[in-house]
Amino acid sequence: MSDQLDIAVLLPCYNEASTIGQVVRDFRAALPSAHIYVYDNNSIDGTALQAMLAGATVVRERRQGKGHVVRRMFADIDADIYVMADGDGTYSPADAEDLIRTLLTEQADMVVGTRRHIRVEAGRQGHAFGNRIFNRLYRSIFGTDFSDIFSGYRAFSRRFVKSFPAVSNGFEIETEMSVHASRLKLPVNELELDYGRRPEGSHSKLSTFKDGAKILWMFAMLMKETRPFAFFGLISAAFLTASLIFMAPVLIEYFETGLVPRLPTWVFSMALILVAIMLLTAGLILDSVSRARTEQLRIHYMTIARQKSHGGKKSQASPVALPKRRGRKAAA
Fold this sequence. Notes:
7-stranded mixed β-sheet; single chain; two-stranded antiparallel ribbon; elongated; about 325 residues; alpha/beta
């Protein structure tokens, strides 16, 4: 109905022919009024065909990588509420109504479905271990808003989607989403949900070490952009420490003999101090620039309506009707 919120279900996919059809059908059952979009990222196994047969709108994104897909989806689709999930069947479409309900009742801009049994059900202990390490690293750098930054099951407001810059190319996109929300201090929530194993014939596209290195690099780049004083301050401290290590024996010898026989070492230590000072100065200047950019992003975010206009009026959150659950307890 025109007075209800438009809900878009976004499913980025790469070679998920064995699962995408059932995922689309399950989302259609869970959210009958939602528009379901499958963005096929150069699949060669019939993913697009299975999605179309299940009733989804299929769009092809030729740039390889989840970041490219998410950027395209957020630019193309205009809705009031966006639900993003994976096409591999590891997230339950029945939980989508809980994500949306939390988004509406909490007036949040993003709700993340954190994975309850990831260590048991993910199937790869290396991924589970890396997930814990990166989540701890994220909380130490960017704040404690999130406990599962790699979850692919999320609900977004229109304001979040249309203000999110999305510069990542691959699986780092979830990290960038989390940093964007933390940087602008957006209202966010987490909802603990069950996480299942991939069905037979479906395989993870993640590489433990390759994608882990990409995510670590993304952490560094996001820290440089959002917390430049801390970023350059750490590098400055490293150079200062190296300078003191080289300087110490020269100073000890000078105080003992009054001579500086190792002049090149002394000059090198002084050069390291100068580099440390320059890095600290750069961090101070860039911190002011980063604050100004954050203010601009926040102002842009505030100019975007929470819901798009329907017939000249803004939709309100209250009219949206979600299907009632039958025989299934709501997630905590």
